[in-house]
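Here is an idea for our session: we take a single protein and study its fold together. Which protein we use is up to you, so please pick one and set it down. Once you have written the record down, we can walk along the chain together:
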Amino acid sequence: KAVVSSTSLELGIDIGSIDLVVLIGSPKSVNRALQRIGRAGHRLHEVSKGVILVLDRDDLVECTVLAHNARNRRLDRIKIPHNPLDVLVQHLLGMALERVWDINEAYSLVKRAYPYHDLSFEDFMSVLRYLAGEYAGLEEKKVYAKIWLDEEEGKFGKRGKMTRAIYYMNTGTIPDEAKIEVYTLDKRFIGTVEEEFAERLMPGDIFVLAGRTYEFKKSRGNRIYVVPKEGAKPTIPAWFSEMLPLSFDLAIDVQRFRREVKGLLNNRRAKSFLMKKYQIDEKAAKAILGYFREQEKYSTIPDDEILLVEEVFDERRAKYFFHTLIGRRANEALSRAFAYLISKKKRTNVGIAISDNGFMLILPKEKPLSEEEIKELFQVEDLRETLKRALDNTELLKRRFRHVANRGLLILRRYMGRKKSLSRQQLNAQTLLRLLKKNYPDFPLLKEVYREIMEDKMDIENAELFLNWVKEGKIKVVIEHNELPSPFAFNLEVIGASDVVLMEDRRELIKQLHRKIMKLIEEKA
C-alpha cells in the first residue's frame, strides 16, 4: 500500500502508520527532509526511515550532502520575515477596533513580537498615518481612513461603522492567485499562463504558448498583450518549475563538498572514503567521482574558493554561465541585478536562466562582455539599490504590489458583501502603484513590496554576503571561454534552451551535450 503525496507531506497531519517515506528528487533543505521523513515511524521509540531517489548528477551531489547533514543534525537556519508592514496594518487596525490606544504603548506592544523587535518608530508611525488617511490623493482612489489619530495627544482609535466589517472580511495573508489571460494586440484570445510565470515577463520577452512563439508587449489588469513572432527563439522557458529553492546553508555545504571531492580525484581510496563518510553505495560514489573528473578534464571545478564564469557562443547568442552555488533565491537577486547593469551598458535585452547552482545570462552575439566587464559586475556598490531599480516597471513588482495592497487593506477584496474581481484589483493596484511611486516613495506598503520581493521571494542578504566574499578575495573569479557548456553547466543550458519543453527532450539534450564533451575530452587527452 502506498500514499502518493505532494510537498504537503510537511504538514503536521498524521495519516496513520507509515513505514517508509520515499522522496523523489532533493527536498532542497535538511529541515524539509527531516520533516517529511519524520512522517514514517511517527511513534515513540520508533526510527523514521526515508529514501531519497536522485534525478540527475547535480541532485546526487546535493542529496549526498543533505543526507550527511541530516544524520549529523546539521539543520538549516530559519529565516523569519523582517518588519512586514502590510501585516502590521492588520494588527494595528485590529487593536484599534478593541479600544483607544496610547501610541507609545501600542509601539512597545508591537515590538514584543519577534518579527518587529527592531521596527523603527518612523515606520510604525507611517502605518498609523496611512490608516488615518493622511496621505493626500488616496481618497480620490477610494482609499478611506479606517482609524483616527491624534499625534499631539498621542492616541489613536477606530473610525466609522464599516471598519469592523472591512477588517473581518479582508484580513489574512494568502493572496488570491490568478490565471492570466493572454491576448494579441488586436484582442484575439490565445490562452492563459500562471501568475508566477507572468511575473517574470519583461517587454520584448519571447515565450512559447500553445506551440507558438509570442513577444510580450504590455499588461493591463489580469491580461497580458502579445504579438505573434513566428520562428523567433524564446528568451524565457515555457516550462516553469514550482520546485522549492535550495537553502543557502546547504548550498554552501555543497560548495565545500565540491572542494573535498576535488582533493580526492587522484586518490586511489577516493571511492571507499566517500562510501564510508557519506554512507552512499558504490554506484553513487562512482557517479560523483566520474562527474567531477569530467568537469576537471574539460574545465574548472567551482567550489567555495573558486567562482567559475563560462562564456559559450552559439550561432546568435553569447551565453555566460555563472557557477554561483548559493540557492535559487540568492541567484535570482544577483542575476536580475547583473542583467540590469548589462542591459543599461550594452543597450540590449538580457535573457536569464536560473537554477540553485548558478545562473546564465544570454546576450546577442554582437554585444559580448569582456573579462573586465564580467569582473566589474561583482564590484557593484549597492546591490539593494541596483535590484530595486531593476524591479521598476516589471510584472513582478506590479503583481506583488497587489498582494501587499490586499494584505495592507489598501485594495479591499470584499466590500459591502461583494467580492471584487481579481482583474479589477490588479487594475487598481497598478494605478495606486504609479501614484505612490510618483508622490510617496516612502509609503509603507511601497517599502513593503520591495522588502517582500528582495528578502522573501529572493534572498538579497545572502547574495550581498556572497558578493562581499568575492570583493574580499575569499572567492576568486575564474573566467573561461568554452566551445560547449561544461558538465556542471548542463542543467542551466537546458533551462535556457527554451524550445525544449518536455522532460524527455531535456534528457536527450543533456545526453547529446555529454557525448560531445566526452569526445572533446578524448581529443584533448
Observations:
- The longest strand covers residues 212-220.
- Residues 503-524 form the longest helix (22 residues).
- Residues 11 and 35 are 8 Å apart (CA to CA).
